[in-house]
Specification:
The complex is a heterodimer of chains A (132) and B (431). Helix content of chain A is 47%, strand content 20%. Chain A is of the alpha/beta class and 132 residues long. The longest helix of chain A has 17 residues. Helix content of chain B is 54%, strand content 10%. Chain B has a six-stranded mixed sheet with strand order 2-1-5-4-3-6, sandwiched between helices. The chains are: A alpha/beta (132), B alpha+beta (431).
Chain lengths: 132, 431
């Protein structure tokens, strides 16, 4: 089972929508992940650094600091430069996707997303990181 | 072929439109079908009583048959041809086309009007999507709630054995989110409806000020006649909802009042009747050119003798007041085109700038722009002056031979290889 491979894995979910947090937490917990969530953009980089997760799920529009700024700051940290980051956003234009990818986002997903897509992306990113 | 020689074609067109046989019409007006056939093929001139009888039988005014399509229709066809950007060899035959095929000509002119209207809509929407924080937040709220609902509903539907506690929690979330989605969708629709009707949108002071000035058509008769004050006008303006908008409008009205006192309407109208000479007006009324340009834009169209637009900016280039004019697009949000003569004037304070311009993608209309920057602050040895600039925009009867091509704002400008471009245009990326 793929979930078993993920046992003990740790994800930080930076998202300000409580019911999205709840749904993703349920989904990933069942898949064997430990999920920490955080809702404020301002200190998100510090929270991620302190948590040292295997993967980050990051919303683009956050209070205090945008997901785009957060990813840029993360990529400047040597220890976090290869951390898989899945970005969730309501802005799905090609331009936004391009900007996110240039900033260092590993995968880009537009809202409203399906649970299957999120789960597949998380598993895929984790597998790629482990292979690398 | 001259328009008045196409009377026969118009008769034929109208008769066919009414599904009337040639012989029947000929009989009705007392001529032979073969003679009517010659008339309809423009091989016999027609006038007098016969024309009146035929027009009556066809249910139109005789002038409709002799003059054919309205001048506006022909003008619209020429605009459509010019806007296509391609040399149209038959441009001189627009009236013949309109005369022979009035239905098709109307379709073409209608489509051209529609394209122009859609261009305006695209510009307004793209500006708003790019720069309007309220709209972006509203859309984000709707999509985030939809994402939460989709994810939660999917868990409920697809998870076989779900503990009662989780099930209850997700049902509760679903209920909350669906209510939020209903509310945020309604807010979004209200928000868009407000802007579609041109009414005021809260939180955008410049739009509130523009709505206020538009309500008075940029001319405040009662203020000029001393029957009211800027303060009273602002206090009674339902369009001005924010403090920023009220303060901006008050400043603009006080300036308006000072300009009007310097150049009273009746005297100014008399001067204008002798010719249009802004520099001459400045000398005559002993005021500076910026006052003249602002004052001219505040005149009713019948006094000025033409429509006018106006833009006033501060030293940073931020637009403080604008009066739109058809054919010259002014961005609703964000920075304007740096090539506007307004900014050339700002770079050379006190030096009048006159340029004939066209906007990219809107080659149907040319404009003469008169601009000047004036010191907003009194002279001071120890401080640099702070300037403002004004630009009066006047439509030209004909396209200038060598106009300055400008845009509205970079985001929606189709201009290529522009040294002044600040950011890429979405017209390249998405359209």
């Amino acid at each position: 089972m793929e979930g078993d491979l993920n046992m003990g894995r740790h994800v930080v979910l930076v998202e300000d929508e409580p019911n999205i947090i709840e749904a993703i937490r349920f989904l990933l917990t069942r898949d064997g992940w430990t999920v920490d969530s955080h809702s404020d953009g301002r200190d998100a980089v510090e929270v991620i650094k302190a948590a040292d997760p295997d993967l980050v799920i990051l919303d683009l529009m956050l209070p205090g600091k945008s997901g785009m700024e957060i990813i840029k700051d993360l990529r400047e940290e040597e220890a976090l430069s290869n951390l898989p980051v899945l970005m969730l956003t309501a802005r799905g234009q090609a331009r936004d996707r391009d900007m996110a990818e240039k900033a260092g986002v590993s995968r880009f997903m537009t809202k409203p997303f399906s649970n299957t897509e999120v789960l597949a992306a998380v598993r895929d990113l984790h597998a790629q990181a482990n292979q690398g | 072929m001259a328009r008045d020689t196409l009377t026969g074609s118009r008769i034929r067109e109208r008769r066919l439109f009414l599904d009337l046989r040639q012989a029947a019409l000929a009989r009705q007006v007392g001529i032979s079908a073969s003679y009517l056939n010659l008339i309809e093929h423009n091989r016999r001139r027609i006038g007098g009583k016969l024309l009146v009888d035929i027009a009556k039988a066809l249910g139109v005014e005789p002038s409709m048959l002799t003059e054919g399509a309205e001048v506006a229709l022909i003008s619209a066809l020429r605009e459509a041809a010019a806007d296509s950007g391609k040399p149209v060899a038959e441009l001189d035959h627009a009236d013949e086309f309109a005369g022979r095929f009035p239905g098709w000509a109307e379709v073409l002119a209608g489509e051209h009007r529609r394209v122009a209207s859609l261009e305006r809509t695209v510009q307004v929407l793209s500006d708003r999507l790019t720069h309007d924080p309220d709209l972006a937040a509203s859309l984000h709220e709707v999509l985030s709630t939809a994402a939460a609902i989709r994810s939660t509903a999917s868990i409920l539907a697809e998870t076989g054995e779900l503990e009662q506690e989780w099930r209850d929690r997700f049902h509760r979330n679903l209920n909350e989110d669906s209510r939020r989605l209903a509310e945020s969708s309604k807010s979004l629709v209200n928000f868009l409806d407000q802007s579609n009707t041109g009414s005021v949108r809260r939180g955008v002071p410049q739009e509130e000020v523009e709505a206020f000035f538009t309500a008075y058509d940029y001319h405040f008769s009662a203020l000029e006649q001393g029957q009211t004050s800027p303060e009273d006008l602002v206090a009674g303006a339902s369009e001005l909802q924010s403090d920023t908008a009220r303060s901006t409008a008050l400043g603009a009205l006080q300036q308006y009042q000072a300009d009007a006192e310097k150049m009273p309407l009746a005297e100014l109208a008399r001067s204008l009747s002798r010719g249009f000479d802004p520099a001459g007006l400045a000398a005559e009324f002993n005021c500076d050119l910026s006052q003249v340009l602002r004052r001219l834009a505040a005149l009713p169209e019948d006094v000025l003798g033409q429509a006018s637009g106006l833009v006033i900016c501060d030293a940073s280039g931020a637009v403080l007041l604008r009066k739109p004019i058809a054919g010259f697009a002014l961005p609703r949000f964000g920075a304007s085109c740096p090539l506007w003569p307004l900014y050339a004037a700002l770079a050379r304070p006190m030096v009048p700038v006159r340029r004939q311009v066209v906007q990219h993608g809107r080659h149907a209309v040319g404009f003469e722009c008169l601009a000047v920057a004036w010191p907003q602050t009194p002279p001071d040895f120890d401080r640099d002056p702070v300037y403002r600039a004004v630009m009066l925009i006047l439509p030209l009867a004909e396209l200038p031979a060598t106009p300055l091509a400008v845009g509205s704002s970079c985001r929606v400008c189709a201009g290529q290889d522009c040294a002044a471009r600040r950011e890429p245009s979405i017209l390249d990326e998405e359209f």
